[in-house]
Amino acid sequence: MLMNTKELLQTAYENNFAVGSFNVANSEFVKVVIEAAEEQNAPAIIQIHPNEIELVGDDFAKYVVEACKNTFVPIAIHLDHGATVQDVQRAIKNGYTSVMIDASHASFEDNMAITKKIVELAHAVNVSVEAELGTIGSNEGSSEGGADQILYTDPEDAKTFVENTGIDILAVAIGTSHGQYKHQGKPELKIDLLEEINQQVDIPLVLHGGSDNKDEEISQTYQHGVAKINLSTDMKNAFFKEMRTFLTENPGAYEPDVIMPSARKAAKDLVKQKMDLFGSTGKIKFYR
Q1: HEC profile for 259-288?
Q2: Domains in the chain, please, with CATH?
Q3: CA end-to-end span of the chain, whole Å?
Q4: Which residues are designated catalytic?
Q5: What is the dihedral of CA 35, 248, 143, 86, to 10 degrees?
């Protein structure tokens, strides 16, 4: 059941749970997310980064749209970290139900102006808009971008930004980073800052860099306005770690129907655990 992302997240926001938003770049990960959501009776979001759509092409997006239409769970399709008007237009043309415009590296005024133009463009065709205020960190191995140093979201700026742009969803910087924390300290989320931001704005918040965070901190975020948690690294690690193990133990294997099932199961088990952690398991009852 393909849904407008604003409506999908508003339900989560009002009922204090978060919807997992999972990056996909092939059909295996699409199956992982949809099957996990169906088994957990959970809403979900499939998101595609511009790097990923460049890899797989626009026809892949058509496949994702049809797969989402054919499931019984509430699901949305999201552009992750769109950087240009062209990224946004391509996503809208491909049937996404929401787009992210990431102008967080620009000045506050330019970020606001760029975002406002995207809101006007997307809202005209009933597509929701996410923007980012502050900067997410970037660790080794991530192709999603980020900053060398996290710039935390200012609550008063968040209020001004939301009021002046008309966005539907706000991504906040409270201490997370994209990618793996191999050579970095584990992230420490500033829950007190998240509380302040949530008091200033009345729209769903987004946590980027949802992998490798402490469970006890994640479980606090959706009590303070976070309705969307992005996850990529943990899911991909589970998939490819199992695939490497299988191929090492079965060096003669080459058929996809032999190689893929165990890797898909490992990734799906991880996604199901995250849905439990995010509080979204069993929540399709709110969408009926």
Answers
A1: HHHHHHHHHHHHHHHHHHHHCCCCHHHHHC
A2: 5-287 (3.20.20.70)
A3: 11
A4: 80
A5: -60
